[in-house]
Amino acid sequence: MTSAIPLRLYVNGDRYEIAVEPRRTLADALREDCGLTGTHLGCEHGVCGACTVLVDGQPVRSCLMFAVQAEDSSVRTVEGLAPDEERLHPVQQAFWENHGLQCGFCTPGFLVLVAGYLEEHPDAEEAELREVLSSNLCRCTGYQNILTATMCAARAMRGEELP
Amino acid sequence: MTGTEPPTWTGRALPRLEDPAIVRGWGRYVGDIAARDQGCLHARFVRSGVAAGRLVSVTAPPGITLFTAADLAGVKPIRAVLNRPDFVAVDTPILAEDMVRFVGEPVGLVIAASEAAAEDALELVDIEIEPLPAVVSAEQALAPGAPLVHAVAYPGDPNTVVDGRIHTEGFDAAFARADRIVEIQVSSARQSAMPLEARAAHVAYDRAGGRSTLHVTTQMPHVIRTGIADALGLREDDLRVVAPDVGGGFGAKMALAREDVALVWASRRLRRSIAWLETREENFLAAWHSREQVYDIAGAFAADGELLALRGDLVCDVGAYSCYPVTWGVEPLMAMAELPGAYRVREYSVRSRAIATNKCPIAPYRGVSRPVQVLAMERLFDVAAAELGLDRVAIRERNLIVEFPHRSPSGLVLDQASHLETLRAATELADLDDFRDRQERARAQGRYLGLGIACFAERTGYGTPAFAARSRPIRLGREPAPLITPGYERVVLTMDPSGALTLRIGASPHGQGLRTTLAQLVCDELGLAPDAVRVIASDTDATPYGWGSFASRAMVIAGGAALLAARELAARLRVLAADRLGGLPGDIELTGGRAVRAGDETGVSLATLARDTYLNAHLIPDKGEPALEAVGLYDPSGTFANACHVAEVEVDPLTGRVSVTRFLVAEDAGRLINPAIVDGQIHGGVAQGVANALYEELIYDERGVLVTTSLMDYLPPTIAELPGIEIVHLDTRSPESITGAKGVGEGGTIGAPAAIANAVSDALAPFGLGVFHLPATPHRVRTAVRTGTDVRRTEKGTAP
User: Fold this and answer.
1) Within this chain, do residues A61 and A106 fall inside the same structural domain, yes or no?
2) Distances B473 to B83, B84, B165, B602 between C-alpha atoms, Å
3) Residue range B397-423, pLDDT digits in tens
4) Are residues A100 and A63 part of one domain?
5) SS (H, E, C) B662-701
6) Which one of A36, A52, A79 terminates a domain?
7) Does some domain include residue A26?
8) For residues B279 and A62, what is the distance between their CA atoms, to the nearest angstrom?
């Protein structure tokens, strides 16, 4: 065991001055040191994707990244998707309206994954989005409503009318 | 509400009340409680790496806090029993004592200041075990002279812990007069329910009151409290059990974990809070398995396809211990009682066994035995149709139960169902003629398409009478151990002085949206909107005793209890309103948050009635109580949902890859309280059924070591492996469910494996091959094509 070292993280626009062991994962630092428990841990070996966060806009498995690797990077978690406490992000809204979640444990990972992708690729079509969604595991929904929600979110983010 | 909207909240695809918090990341799962408790200690379990052996010692260097069985002297073992002569009862020690019986069995508990420190400490623990011969398959366990998993007396064969039999009077004669006997063996590999959230617990100790509070990932908090209190000799009130948001259960979180008992004990011993977050590897090793079953069945058919008699020899490999509360009889006893399913089986001879092995114990997993039961029946009908030269839809139509009530040969009463109607709805939508054309054209191009059908009846919403029937009646003073007989649900519905409702339930949701659906049911009775109803669940301090959520029961039983309570409260409000407004209670309508007298606009708000009931008690007529509260109790004998699944697949004979290209579900779960939630249950169930059919498998090696301990080895499907699912709903009502809902949680998982096995067999028909073992992995399918042999279970255990 080594001693903790100071670390500065920027998460959802806020600055966090924390001290972590070098072996601490980004996921654990977010959850335990920053108190942002919306990021979930489903497997801790990089398969399930529940811990997906955006680091400088790119989706990463926060269970496979050390916290110290995120120093001075901009991290975005599920708590940072909604613009404020009154409104939801279009992806959150679409998951809610389309019953895109059941137990909700995988949901933060999917929301961050989809929000990150659609913000960079607003014109993505179904086949491409299915490919993106195959990054993460859900055990409850069979993915059908996750796909529907993702398609609705894409339309909403393009400013299109929903059918 | 506008005039165009339906008149009730029930029946609407209302977005869930649970979701706004969850999508913001404000869910509260056990791990989140642990993450926010900076002062708590952290636990890791020391586990056996040996399948069978004598535990010599578990030791750690000085400075490491390690508890072993010796420390837990005085803690009672877990004992999950049924009162049957064929049932072998064994103890599950909280930590292994002198013997270890499966790889992953907890032998010690390490406590440290942080999770990382606990993991460091775990690596320094030394375990000495003298290995003994292990039995790692049912065949090995049943062999003469086999090593015994438990050194206890067995009434029959070695390691046989349940041995149930039914033999109807006319069976032998019916079997003898058959035109054709069709015999098949079907089997399923071991599987994991694999909730995305592994197990977790956080136990706090209140020094002032001497009370423990356990937050835990469970489907049945009240039952877990009873189990832990029994083991530790606590008053139940000394322990509060809370299931906060739970990240999926599927049955795997409805068993009492030894780990939870040990953690509560350690927390009370150290007088500190302790958190335990199971790793995914531990979850595979030790958090309950299921479905490792082999059925030899024989159907005695008349030439016209009528099934005259059914014989079965059903063997379930149940692992090393009996799970609490449903016992290690849960798979074989369900299989024995329900094998005939949706079909008329007049004569029946069945033997159904639970065999103990040196593997992880089983617990229920969505559908329990039914996926294998349906696999057996549906493969039987397809094989029989081929042998008798009959159409496979016609042979099903000939044998499906169409007259109700129907009494099955095991004594179950099917009160009503729509078997024929669901079969017709699914096959019409599938357009079999069009499929045959496409199949022929594809074959001409060297592509192999297949279509498979599966019909089933799913027993749902069964209360105390059904569970009691698994045991013989208890004679007072004669019970071998405390029996546990689940079943009823109670709710307490309260209107507070502001007119808001709280519904406290004994059921315990973990993703089913019960807070929404129960609110829909209740608010319709009271003329309120769903957001006026707060459902409180999963906390033993705040809810009435109940059995939790499992077995497709919550909407039927907790829903029924909620409806009864809502009707009682509505009746009381009508009395209060009639007294105030004049007229009779029967003339009062509750609507839009008001009590209104029929025929005119005179009314009073429910909030006013509520406020005066509590705060101006002298206004209450007839000395009624100054409270607005109703208790609902519902304990039905159970009903049956039913469905027909149709799968279309394409098989690549070179690689063995199976693609599910279309999946249809014609489902009759009665009244749909929230259609979106019902469809969601079906989608998720079918996904787990596809997983059972094609991908997921727990594999032990010949020494009893589990080799599939990560998500790189155990393969739950992603969206890329799953088809879109088309659903048709039928609605047949049952008098056994006052809400009209019949339970829908398990059906998707029950029908899909059989439909896919039949579809892959249909695709492989040009090769003369069929699928009789699941999962039909690419390796198995490719090997079948290359060797010209059916996809079957290999003899030695579960490895391919």
Assistant:
1) no
2) 8, 9, 18, 56
3) 999 999 999 999 999 999 999 999 999
4) no
5) EEEEEEECECCCCHHHHHHHHHHHHHHHHHHHHCCCECEC
6) A79
7) yes
8) 16
Domain total in chain A = 2
Query: Are residues A105 and A44 part of one domain?
Result: no
Same domain, residue pair A57 and A101: no
Sign of CA dihedral B221, B222, B223, B225: positive
Residues A75 and A101 reside in one and the same domain: no
Is B509 in CB contact (< 8 Å) with chain A? no
Clarify whether residues A113 and A71 are in a common domain. no
d(CA A137, CA B719): 8
Tokens encoding B110:
């390490």
pTM of the model: 0.96
Interface contact B195-A139, CB threshold 8 A: yes
A-B interface: how many C-beta pairs under 8 angstroms?
Answer: 178
Mutate to test the interface with A, among B14, B24, B279, B749 (most CBs of A within 10 A): B24
Cα distances (Å, whole numbers) of residue B133 to B127, B185, B315, B357, B604: 18, 29, 22, 11, 77
List CB contacts (< 8 A) between B117 and chain A.
1
- Last residue of some domain: A30, A49, A79? A79
Do residues B375 and B188 make contact, with C-beta atoms less than 8 angstroms apart?
yes
B380 contacts B183 by C-beta, under 8 angstroms: no
Mean of pLDDT values over B192-207: 97
Assess B209–A contact: CB distance below 8 Å, yes or no. no
Angle, nearest 10°, between helix axes B370-388 and B747-763? 30
Looking up residue A145, the CATH number of its domain turns out to be: 1.10.150.120
Q: What is the C-alpha end-to-end distance of chain B, expressed in Å?
A: 59
Phi, psi dihedral angles at A149 (to 5 degrees): -65, -40
Give the domain extent around A142. Answer: 90-157
| Chain B nearest-CA residue for A88 | B24
Among B290, B271, B265, which Cα is nearest to B367's? B290
- State yes or no: ipTM above 0.95: yes
Q: What residues 112-151 of chain B have any CB closer than 8 A to a CB of chain A?
A: 115-117, 120
Give the phi and the psi of residue B380 in degrees, each rounded to 5. Answer: -60, -45
Residues of B in contact with A111 (CB under 8 A): 23
- Is residue A122 domain-resident? yes
Radius of gyration over every alpha carbon of chain B, rounded to an integer in angstroms: 27
Burial class (CB within 10 angstroms; exposed 0-12, middle 13-18, buried 19+) of B724 = middle
Interacting residues of B478 by C-beta distance below 8 A, sequence separation 6+: none
Which residue, among A99, A111, A129, A137, would best test binding to B if mutated, counting the most B CBs under 10 Å from its CB? A99
| Bridge partners of residue B191, in order along the sequence | B290
| CATH number reported for the structural domain that contains residue A41 in this entry | 3.10.20.30
Per-residue pLDDT of chain A (163 residues; tens, 9 = 90+): 568 999 999 999 999 999 999 999 999 999 999 999 999 999 999 999 999 999 999 999 999 999 999 999 999 999 999 999 999 999 999 999 999 999 999 999 999 999 999 999 999 999 999 999 999 999 999 999 999 999 999 999 999 876 6
What is the C-alpha separation between B480 and B322, in angstroms, rounded? 15
Residues A50 and A16 in one domain: yes
User: For B102-131, what is each residue's pLDDT tens digit?
Assistant: 999 999 999 999 999 999 999 999 999 999
Task: Please check whether residue A162 lies inside any domain of the structure.
Answer: no
Which of A12, A34, A37, A128 is the best residue to mutate to test the B interface, defined by the most B CB atoms within 10 Å of its own CB?
A37
CA of A113 to nearest chain B CA: how many angstroms apart? 13
- Going from the N-terminus, what domains does chain B have, and what CATH number goes with each? 23-132+197-247+253-286 (3.90.1170.50), 293-465+637-787 (3.30.365.10), 488-634 (3.30.365.10)
Say if residue A14 is in the same domain as residue A50.
Answer: yes
Position A67 in a domain:
yes
Nearest to B216 by CA among B557, B510, B544: B510
